[in-house]
Fold:
Amino acid sequence: MYTIGDFLIKLKNASRAYKKTVEYPYSNAVFSIAKILEKEGFVNKVSAKDEDSRRLLKIDLKYKKNVPAISEIKLISKPSVHHYVGKNKMARVERNAVGIVTTNKGVMTIRDAQKQGVGGELICQIF
Structure:
């Protein structure tokens, strides 16, 4: 199972269904992506909670005038296709989108990776 892709699709579907919150099994990669979404203003709050010997992430979705803050999530890298970008060839993201990349320094936005001068695997673009 592709944890990151599954999480992003669940998040997109929940926002389209106007859910208030999303719960997902905790992993460090998923938590890092969720914190980026919180920092970039796509979700209201991200928290981790322990429930019945399982650790879960709880994400409070954000809406602006009844319109989801997450309008689209475009998966770039998948288990079958990995899209790597070097520090000098960091992919341009579409207007009003945030690109998320995994690097040797952790999960971050493309903008942060460019500032730090690192490349990595482009995971997704979020609009």
Notes: The chain is about 25% helix and 40% strand. The first helix runs from residue 3 to 16. The chain has two domains: 3-67, 73-126. The two ends are 24 Å apart (CA to CA).
